[in-house]
Design brief:
- The chain is mainly alpha-helical.
- It folds into 3 domains: about 80 residues; about 70 residues, no CATH class; about 70 residues, no CATH class.
- Helix content is about 65%, strand content about 5%.
- The chain has 15 helices and 2 strands.
- It has a two-stranded antiparallel ribbon with strand order 1-2.
- α7 packs antiparallel against α8, α8 packs parallel to α10 and α10 packs parallel to α12.
- The longest helix has 15 residues.
- It is elongated and about 70 Å long.
Length: about 250
């Protein structure tokens, strides 16, 4: 079935594979709005319509997603999920557009994007951190809680974008998911060896309610090559006991 509006030509498929006559989408917001609305009516689903359009016109993702969010702001989850599912490589673009539109909080957009494509969590937090620096803590918290196995990557990526917020980023991540402390310390010492004192002290301090994690953090820092003297001082500043320090260094 072919549907033409202006200079658009798109084949609505009834099966998983079908021939498609592809032409360049017409310019102009009104045509784009009309086209998207018509595709939604034809597909009987906003998500299916957006997925189909983005699949056929990935180079027009900005106008497609932007217009869809203008038309259906309360359906942002469906739009973001469909666009990312159709073209995961465009995840950063979709997240940036959604944040710029301001249709919901940055945290909601980050959560929706990660749920749509968990393997792209690094790209999601990267663009979110650059697009909405005031929401760094919320970005980190939501990302780490949603994908704790990627906590080290999340924290490293966000800190590279905002190195002056290193302490806050580490604190937020470990507070959200305490058991990731040792992995975060390992990643951060490798990426920011000059900030070893801040990394270890913050991680130990933030783990004060999870005493078992303190020894693991000290062990990880020791394995990273920090001297016994420096490590003892950093850990003590964070609130580690003499016994915990001795056990971690051993």
């Amino acid at each position: 079935m072919k549907c033409m509006l202006g200079s658009f030509l798109l084949l609505a498929t009834a099966t998983s594979v079908s021939a498609v006559n592809v032409v360049q989408p017409a310019q102009g917001s009104q045509l784009s709005r009309d086209f998207i609305e018509q595709q939604v009516q034809m597909n009987m689903s906003l998500g299916r319509a957006i997925k189909s359009i983005v699949s056929n016109y990935p180079q027009k993702v900005e106008v497609i997603v932007g217009t869809a969010l203008d038309l259906y702001p309360d359906k942002y989850k469906e739009i973001i999920h469909a666009a990312i599912s159709a073209q995961p490589a465009l995840t950063e673009d979709v997240v940036r557009i959604a944040i710029e539109k301001g249709i919901t909080s940055c945290g909601n957009i980050v959560l929706t994007a990660i749920q749509a494509e968990p393997s792209y969590v690094d790209f999601v937090v990267n663009v979110a951190a650059h697009s909405s620096p005031d929401d760094i803590s919320e970005i980190v918290r939501i990302a780490v809680v949603t994908e704790p196995d990627s906590a080290d990557t999340i924290v490293r990526t966000v800190t590279k974008a905002h190195p002056n917020k290193l302490v806050s980023i580490i604190s937020t991540a470990i507070e959200a998911v305490p058991f990731v402390g040792e992995y975060i310390v390992d990643a951060m010492l490798a990426a920011f060896p000059e900030s070893a004192e801040d990394v270890v002290t913050t991680a130990v301090k933030q783990s004060s309610m999870q005493r078992g994690q303190i020894v693991k953090i000290i062990e990880t820092a020791h394995s990273a090559g920090i001297s016994d003297v420096d490590l003892s001082r950093y850990a003590m500043l964070g609130g580690a006991s003499a016994e915990e320090i001795a056990e971690g260094i051993e």
